[in-house]
Design goal:
- The protein has a single domain, classed as Rossmann fold.
- The protein contains 7 helices and 10 strands.
Length: about 260
């Protein structure tokens, strides 16, 4: 499989019309994984996580670092959110982007949603309060109604909790979180693995719906299927290298994974 990252995909990159919603979600996830690998955002090797684990893959959303890649990323978020509205009852009145990575994400997704006919306001926060001009820590539209938080990943839930506090302090309702990738792995508390992930904590303990464009299981499915393809595709060493990545990621999931 191959993908072009130098120009945005055709307008809207519409979802298949003859599949079930779950088919549409899987298609979106597989396209996103391929895009993230081709863009160098999703890499394979040995990487130390914030929890101190050695991970066989690394997802760095900061490498969506030009207009074409950011625009394509926004398309994936927007398509997924519109699908969630149609199938799961997700509802939101505005978008909030937590500083710092959430700021360009919120802006880009708001632009793409508007292009697709779903125009919503957006806001973001500063890390430090401004003592001149309009002042305060919030920038953009007034924070009100049901608020969708947009970020790249949920690692420990800290940024999500901070966003919830900011949104509630403004008198609005934190309603849901949209992220690019759910690592589906055990969280760490006091240096010990726990039986749930950071995403599950946000869902169960903080009461927010979490939508992810793709999950670790989607990455495994992509590696398994792409590894069966003839050599000369996305990886220079063909299927053998992809199968190696698949096995290492699978081993990691079997050790640290959650559903």
């Amino acid at each position: 499989m191959s993908i072009t990252t130098g120009t945005p995909a055709p307008a809207g990159n519409p979802l298949p019309r003859d599949g079930t919603p779950d088919d549409e979600r899987r298609t979106l996830a597989q396209e996103f994984v391929e895009f993230a690998i081709a863009s160098g955002v999703l890499r394979f090797g040995e990487f130390k996580t914030k929890a101190g684990r050695m991970s066989p893959y690394f997802f760095n959303a900061g490498l969506f670092d030009d207009g074409a890649k950011l625009g394509r990323l926004a398309q994936f978020y927007a398509r997924g959110l519109l699908l969630q509205e149609k199938t799961s009852g997700l509802q939101f009145d505005m978008i909030f982007g937590p500083a710092y990575k959430g700021i360009p994400l919120a802006a880009a997704v708001a632009v793409e949603l508007a292009r697709l006919g779903r125009n919503v306001p957006f806001a973001y926060n500063r890390k430090e309060a401004k003592d001149h001009g309009e002042g305060g820590t919030l920038v953009g539209a007034p924070v009100k109604g049901r608020v969708l938080i947009i970020d790249d990943v949920i690692s420990a839930g800290t940024a999500t909790r901070e966003s919830i506090a900011i949104i509630r302090a403004a008198g609005a309702t934190p309603h849901a979180v949209a992220i690019a990738l759910d690592r589906q792995e055990k969280a760490v508390e006091n240096g010990q693995d726990v039986a749930y992930s950071a995403v599950q904590f946000v869902t169960r303990e903080l009461g927010l719906h979490v939508f992810a464009i793709a999950r670790l299981t989607d990455l495994l499915q992509y590696l398994a299927e792409a590894g069966k393809a003839p050599a000369g595709g996305l990886e220079s060493n063909g299927g053998d290298l992809l199968q190696t990545h698949y096995q290492r990621v699978l081993d990691y999931r079997q050790r640290y994974g959650v559903d």
